[in-house]
DNA sequence: AAAAATTACGCAAACGTTTGCGCTACTTTC
DNA sequence: GAAAGTAGCGCAAACGTTTGCGTAATTTTT
């Protein structure tokens, strides 16, 4: 016996008034008398009336729903980001519709389509690694669906985004090593095309330049971020004539793999070789030889900021003929130094 | 200039046919001639027609949306569960509406309400630790919104759920230690009221019994799962007359804290004292002294299974007068032994 | 006391889609 | 060649809500 949800009609019938009156009464409209308002509320309570949101969404062409597209929900970075997004959306009475691209462009496209059809009010996305064509985002413009990107930003003009300035963190990281006396500093970077890789490298270069040292390109190797790729990279770095005494790893996972390799080669961590990296994973505290320092990228803050920007966009009066402005927020990354114990 | 999405009406007008014909044509209905079908599709493509899902949801009283309520998205266990849920839902053309309770009953209630108003087709939930009243779930019955619980199951009759049999894993864990020769085995359990704690203890007791040993209640201490709580627990365990040579920790996090304490006391891990625990966190491979073994609880599989059950429920013909049956799936946990290296 | 203003409500359209039923025109059957 | 069947399409209601406009009743103004 599936229970039929009470509607506004039902209330109207019971009170012998029109549905419009009921609707207005429930919205506390000024043109409805106090007496009828009270009676309507009374009956609404008795019947346990709940507005049918699907009807409202349909009628209002607004769903109070934010679409969120992330590459991988199980990754620590993104799971704390989605946590932030949900918190912020919820605080403003929005809900979150979720999709994960698994770093596949095709999947990402399909999810965008789904979200468009679901009539989400706006989108928050961190793009897939393998997305090279951004037409599916471009297409959203003419439907006036605002998009805010975060962390992984597409190379498109006129977009809103919040990102983390990794370059500055990278600079801090390398400077930290230089100040500790290291002069030959290797880097295990990610794939070349990744923006994340470039930023890391730029920070590295800045630090070298700042300390008036000579840049040796041979010290920069790249890993495909798998364990094997990292092992390869380590092999390259450790078989050079001028062996690095410190290594900047693409992220904590890479660093941990690199550490394992180094230990396999009987190297003493923090003596023969020192590591710094990016991400500042919570669990790495427990790890045998955590990187001496790690660049925090503030996923919670990024997610929160992105959501706030999107909500702002949604509350802005679009019909006003103000020229569009684009929010580009850069959160500064920060080198977190492990308390040496 | 916000672009107006083309509708079925628009197509009808252009072809001088009725909307119903267009609708049927797009659904490949048998009563529409091939010629008109082709023409309709043609125009639909030209206009880039996309059905307005909100209208369909409203009309069909079905949203193809699954509500998911989890305690904490940033926890590894739940983030891999939500990843599984999203994958499975997506595969069946459902989308996921997300909410996190932060282990607060009030928040959980509010989210249930929101999801009901959004007319989600069904709900997947892992209940908050602090939820003691389940009326908000009970209330969903009369709206015929099916709910599948997973991992954290409420104490309610007639529910669907998938859970992990931790007791058996616990039994395996303790048996493992007994077989290794340990005879005094401590346990750092969670708060007493938690079902998770009880199950762990039951497994412990079973193992003890199976090996015809005497149960010493003093060996079971509980932690509030904070670092301090775990340190306290360790203090108790290590200052007994009969010191345990092995300890079963509530989960990997607790184990790692416990290891830190032990090392602080100059104890040699795996010599003076051995740890086993629960969760089998991916990162603990990298950790200095990971627990010798850990009970895997298969969050991905649990999420997947829960989603499949829910989808089954949704596709079942409810009007048929078949008596309801309740799916209670128990996934066996499994002790994963770290390859000693 | 008539005119004007205000209060309190109802009518009906609109949002976009699906679907039961009915209708026409053509084809088949005996 | 009339009856029966079928193919192909249109009408209109329905889903639940909001909202512009109209209007009757009441109050205020002059």
N-to-C CA distance of chain A: 66 Å
CATH arch. level architecture of the largest domain in chain A:
3-Layer(aba) Sandwich
CATH class of the largest domain in chain A: Alpha Beta
Total of domains of chain A: 3
* Helix-strand topology string of chain A: HHHHEHEHEHEEHEHEHEHEEHEE
pLDDT averaged over residues of chain A: 92
Low-confidence stretches of chain A: none
Major β-sheet of chain A, in short? 6 strands, parallel
Shape of chain A: elongated
Report the sheet-strand fraction of chain A. Answer: 15-25%
Total strands of chain A: the figure is 12
- Computed over alpha carbons, the radius of gyration of chain A is 27 Å
CATH superfamily of the largest domain in chain A: Response regulator
**Total helix count of chain A?**
12
Provide structural commentary.
The structure is a homodimer of 341-residue chains. Chain A is α/β, with parallel strands linked by helices and 341 residues long. The first copy, chain A, folds into three domains: 8-51, no CATH class; 63-164 and 299-329, Rossmann fold; 166-296, Response regulator (Rossmann fold, 3-Layer(aba) Sandwich), CATH 3.40.50.2300. Chain A contains twelve helices and twelve strands. In chain A, strands 2-1-3-4-5-11 form a six-stranded parallel sheet, sandwiched between helices. A six-stranded mixed sheet of chain A has the order 7-6-8-9-10-12, with helices on both faces. The longest helix of chain A is centred in the last third of the chain and has 17 residues, at 299-315. The mean pLDDT of chain A is 92. The interface between A and B is large, with 54 and 54 residues. Chain B binds a DNA duplex (30 and 30 nucleotides) through residues 7-9, 17-21, 23-24, 27, 30-33, 36, 51-52, 54-56, 58-61.
């Amino acid at each position: 016996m599936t229970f039929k949800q009470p509607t506004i009609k039902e209330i109207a019938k019971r009170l012998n008034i029109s549905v419009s009156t009921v609707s207005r009464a429930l919205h506390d409209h000024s043109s409805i008398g106090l007496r009828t308002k009270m009676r309507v509320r009374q009956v609404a309570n008795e019947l346990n009336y709940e507005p049918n949101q699907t009807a409202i969404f349909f009628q209002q062409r607004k769903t109070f729903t934010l679409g969120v597209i992330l590459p991988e929900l199980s990754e620590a970075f993104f799971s704390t980001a989605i946590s932030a997004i949900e918190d912020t959306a919820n605080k403003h009475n929005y809900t979150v519709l979720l999709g994960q691209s698994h770093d596949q462009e095709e999947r990402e496209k399909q999810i965008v389509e789904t979200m468009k059809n679901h009539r989400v009010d706006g989108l928050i996305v961190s793009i897939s690694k393998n997305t090279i064509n951004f037409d599916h985002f471009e297409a959203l413009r003419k439907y006036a669906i605002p998009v805010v990107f975060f962390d992984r930003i597409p190379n498109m003009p006129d977009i809103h985004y919040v990102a983390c300035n990794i370059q500055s963190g990278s600079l801090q990281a390398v400077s930290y090593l230089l100040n500790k006396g290291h002069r030959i500093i290797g880097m295990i970077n990610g794939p070349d095309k990744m923006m994340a890789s470039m930023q890391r490298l730029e920070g590295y270069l800045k630090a070298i330049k700042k300390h008036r040292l000579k840049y040796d390109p041979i010290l920069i190797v790249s890993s495909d971020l798998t364990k094997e790729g990292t092992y390869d990279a380590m092999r390259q770095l450790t078989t050079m004539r001028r062996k690095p005494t410190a290594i900047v790893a693409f992220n904590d996972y890479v660093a941990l793999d690199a550490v394992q390799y180094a230990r396999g080669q009987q190297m003493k961590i923090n003596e023969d070789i020192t590591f710094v990296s990016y991400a500042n994973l919570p669990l790495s505290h427990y790890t045998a030889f955590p990187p001496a320092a790690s660049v925090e990228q503030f996923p919670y803050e990024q997610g929160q900021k992105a959501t706030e920007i999107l909500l702002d966009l949604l509350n802005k009066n679009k019909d006003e003929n103000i020229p569009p402005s684009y929010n580009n927020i850069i959160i500064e990354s920060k080198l977190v130094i492990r308390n040496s114990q």
